[in-house]
Amino acid sequence: MTDHKNRLHFLKEEVEKLKSENLFTTLPVLTSPQGAHVTLNGKKVITLSTNNYLGFANHPRLAAAAKKAMDKWGFGTGAVRQIAGTMEIHNEAEEMLAKYKHTEASLIFVAGIAANRGTIQVLMGEGDAIISDELNHGSIIDGVRLTKSEKKIYPHMNMEGLEKALKETQSAKRRLVVTDGVFSMDGDIAPLDQIVELAEKYDAITMVDDAHGDGVLGKDGRGIVDHFNLHGRVDIDMGTLSKAFGCLGGYIAGRQELRDYLINRSRSFIFTTAHPPCVTGAIMEALKIVQDEPQHLKRLWENTKFFKEGLRDLGFNIGHSQTPITPVIVGESATAQKLSRTLFEHGIFAKPIVFPLVAKDAARIRNIVTAEHTTEDLQFALDVYKKVGKEMKLI
Question: Do the domains 29-57+294-391 and 59-292 sit in the same CATH topology, yes or no?
Answer without folding.
Answer: no
